[in-house]
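To make the argument concrete, we let one protein speak, a sequence paired with a row of structure tokens, as a model reads it:
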Amino acid sequence: MFGSLFRRNASQKLSALLLMFGFIWGLVLLRYTFQQPKHQNSAELREQILELSKRYVRALAEENQNAIDGPQGASMAGYADLKRTIAVLLDDILQRLGKLENKVDYMITSSLTNNTNSTNNNSVSAGAKFSPLCGLTSTDGFPHCEGKIKWMNEMWKSEPCYANYGVNGSICSFIKYLSEVENFCPFLPERIKKITEANALKLKAKILTRLDGLLELLSERQELVWIKQRIERMKEKWIKDLKSFAKKHNLGNRPRKKILLHLGLLTKESGFKIAENVFKGGPLGELVQWSDLITSVYLLGHDMILSTSVDELKWHLSILIENKFGCPIRGEELLDIIYIDIVGLKQLNSVLGASFTHYRCLLRVLDSFGTEPEFNHAEYAKIKNHESPWGKLNLFPKQFYNMFPHTPDNSFLGFVVEEYFNKNHTVFLNTISRTNKALVYGKLAEYWKDKLPFLDIVRKYAEIHGTFHEKTDVPLPNYIINHGILSGHDLQLLLRESKVFVGLGFPYEGPAPLEAIANGCIFLNIHFNPPKSRKNTIFFQGKPTFRELSSQHPYAEIYIGKPHVWTVDIDNLSDVEEAMQQIMKQKVEPYLPFEFTCEGMLERVNVFIEKQDFCLQREMWPPITALVVKNAKPSQSCVDVCQKEQLICEPAFFYHLNKVAELKRYEINCITSKKERELYLPAFNAEDQMCLLQSDYLLFSCAGSHERYTRICPCRDYTKGQVALLPGMPEK
């Protein structure tokens, strides 16, 4: 059917693409007919339209690439601009098809469920007990299960791949597929034992006590030179901490997982040129985190695949790209986890096209500043007009991995604070004298602009040093001693000689203050009044979060504090002067929270790999025994109420609390209840004793609040110095 289309010349292909746009908008109009599907043939036709559209666009993309880049490429040089136009159009079409496919799937499921509920008062509801479904006694926690079963009943013949997974038209085969392949239903009781036995036979991960193999792998990649050098410097500490970690925990029965790490920020396609500028004072925070994640995954003994280009990404995902059917691929050849950043995520979406939705649960997205649910949820963000180039990804909020534990809706991955000096250097360190030096935090002279009154106060008590580029148009006083951009070793040596590390208000939430504190400096942290957020600060306006920064480094302010951290208002010079007077009297020892050591990082990454499951979600983690329920006052978020109780909000527990029966156990008695889609739910309206429950699990949020309603908040305890984990053994 498509052969003649593919033999057209480039201009004709462009015309075909324009026709394709019209076809897509026709599909958009078709979606309104999904609200009440009348018979099987119409549903099958819609599915076939979508699938044929995807195949056409993919084939056209491949043909376009071959035509331009193939043996006859030289003769088609005049079509370079056209090629780029076609590539952009193809990418946009594939993304639109993927979104449309999701909408179609959602509408069919919702429609079938609604029709069943409206026409059959005896229909099964989520959580109810029933007998017809092949021995399945409950679908609690799987709200789309029943609708998907009905959908499969009509559509199971539409894709040959369903039969390949054992679907034969029986209810049991539907549930087996929907539980073990697409994760919409609970496991069938008789399958649980077999699945457990199969998992027990999987290869086990064995820790590695050398980094030679990893360093050899990294040495082949010029773009990873900085990461390789960091790992080389820290390798003794990594191995020492790994052995300490292994002694404390049972690591012998962990399944070995296949893990892809795609560093989108280092790809040429990103245009960032980070690898080229990394030794010229460029941003290092993200590379620090990637370096430590790569090392952790390697030492924990998992099968690790690195990708730093879009071509590499395509190569590693070729089996998924070549899959022409509507079923996701499952089995040994599938990846278990994909670590990626926001830039890489957009590349992945483009590479996989409409198939992206099948594998989104594998993602772990490195995201420095955090992504709140109201930005992550595409439809909700559109309704609320929350614009962000980094939002609308429709992931579980816990799939976003942050630099610091500032957003409990996300996961705290963290990084390792590099320690150049340790107990082995005691003799050397005794020769270093700490003097009244103040090292200013700011690699670019622009950060120092308009800070002279503040620096004049600091200068009264300490000699001011800097480490910024010599070339600058910013006028600076001659009392500043600038060392230029220093190597890591020389910088830490300077920190060992300094009394205070001085913040200027920017950059926000970087790793440097923790390095200073680990070297025995006192950090002078800048307080923000009012707090900085996307509402009042250009830097945050594109970020997918309303989080408010109380200071330049909220983690240092909240989780470390005095005597290591003094937070001052830079515009209140008397406050600054009083703080400097107190700081110069202090003598503090180097301090580093456990979560920022190699061992802390290994512990956290190991637990996340073993316990976090965004695909099957069969086991709640953390366990429900850790739940502590607190009621937030009107206008108060769960982040605030948990923090005031020396606890942390745990969004995993929202699923448990989002039921009238469970709320009653916590003395919240609902006369009536209803489900809505808002960030502050579940909540309680005391005026009419109504419980408001969350209807959309992607909007469970620790951050939301309401001026009239009492939020029901799931809190938990945490390990001091390891916020992501419960007290005691991390396996809990």
